[in-house]
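[agent] plan:
  1. take the single chain provided in the ticket
  2. run structure prediction with default settings
  3. attach structure tokens to the ticket
  4. add a short note for the reviewer (M.T.)
[agent] executing step 1
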Amino acid sequence: MLCAMTAPRPIDPRGPRVNQGVLTVALLAGFVLDWWPVVPAFAVVLFLGAAFGPRYGPVLRLYAEVIRPRLPPPTELEDPRPPRFAATVGVLFLGAATVAFLAGAAAVGWALALVVAALAGLAATTGICVGCEIYLFVARRRGVELAA
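[agent] step 2 finished; step 3 output follows
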């Protein structure tokens, strides 16, 4: 028996943007200080939020418990699937960067990590999330119902 999938409950889009901002600053600081362990650390941070939801992502939880209560309600909500997809892509890039660092290819590791930093920074500062747009493009082509 097939069951219809319903769109998940919409989320406050400011949480993922805070997560993206922290990720950007951390990766750039790691690059400037040439401290590559920040890369696998933030791969884990992104993985926890993407795989298990905002309660398990440290930055997302910080946003929900400390920052959000001090803000007015969001003016709009968004489907959680696009930011989760974008975070998953980030995890893959940061995972590949970690493997590169472990293999002694620091230039490749930093190149992959800086792609994530650049895209996360773009999303945090402008709201333009490239990974989210890729998800939306594919979802619309497949007829996936999106939360408003």
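[agent] step 4 note for reviewer: The chain has a mean pLDDT of 94.
[agent] ticket updated
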